[in-house]
Amino acid sequence: MKGHIRQRSKGSWTIWVDLGRDPETGKRKQQTLTVHGAKRDAEREVRDLLHSLEAGSYTKPSRITLGQWLAQWCQSYVAMHCSIRTAESYQSEVRRHIIPALGTIPLTRLQPQHLETYYARALSQGRIDGRGGLSPRTVLYHHRILSEAFSHAVKMGLLGRNVVEAVDPPRVERTNWETLAPEDVPKFLEAAQETSYYELFNTALYTGMRLGELLGLRWRDVDLDMASLSVVQALYKRSGVCKMVEPKSSGSRRRIALSPSLALSLRQYKVDQQAQRIFLGEPLADSDLVFSHLDGKPLDPGVVSHTFAKVLRRAGLPHIRFHDLRHTHATLLLKGGVHPKIVSERLGHANIGITLDTYSHVLPGLQERAAERFDEMLEPGVIAEDVSKMLAKETDLGTAGR
Questions:
Q1: pTM surpassing 0.85?
Q2: Nearest Cα to 200, choosing from 262, 260, 245, 251?
Q3: Which residues constitute the domain of residue 396?
Q4: Which of 244, 247, 356, 399 would suit a FRET pair with 232, their CA atoms being 20 to 30 Å apart?
Q5: What burial letters (b/e) apply to 269-301, b meaning 16+ CB within 10 Å?
């Protein structure tokens, strides 16, 4: 197979690729493509096209645009395979940013240069309100959305390769999450006792559960005899309406062991809740929410977060998000020597790599503790003997050198 390039105008190239003879007519077939960019971009496109032809993975270009594909992908694949919150986030970024910038480009004609230009422009002037650029983290998010969309297009046979993988996204500085220090936890819990959300805050701190998971927890999901609970649903609020949804991912469906103190606290909390409900004439049922209003209606996530901020101010502690109680739980466990795999399971991460990446700033201290622990596990006499030998050897070398 052969292919050649001809420049049409500045920054525009036409590619001709010989597809061989048609078995029915005997005539030679050619495929032409237009590539925008430098000559090296056109040469790379020729190489990729010839390689896909030889490998049998070549897909004939379609007329669908990137915007049409992204809209279709969001409505079908994303809506079916992602959580409601993730799907809405994808759809919002695609509709507000990606389609307006790249949507008219044919899907098969998108080049790495298009993406590099878009990323640079988004960083400098990508805000919709015209007040500057988007953050590197947001642009990286767009890169990941595009990469997932193009990977699916490859699986569907619309493309021969994922062109997004050829582009380096913006670098993002690692964020060290704000957490409560161990000495701040008693102050926080003491201030929280003055609110009706004490058990909710206490459970969040001792389990690392997400706010939606806590608000979706039912008494049937809590086994106080076995000191454990199961995360099987989460509360999600949209347009002022609360509803129960599946957990964020398959890994988010999990069992969490409760500490003895938390199990006892929840047991007393349940007794108190049962007494209140009997007084109201509606006995507590297993299907009722653990954390709710007196009439059993779900709590508003926004109100919980607002109350959490007030508790921090009352305790004289720095402001953190409610979600940072989850980071506090994980950080304290890791610093306490708990294996990252166990921490990953408690948090409901898809794999341990997410845990290690998220809490990498905690690991250096763990490395030092591991080194010290290794010394402690050896017999003191063995260590002393080895140290004496090393000192004696250094003394001998120093004497010989004089």
A1: no
A2: 262
A3: 366-400
A4: 356
A5: bbeebeeebeeeeeebeeebbbbbeeeeebbeb
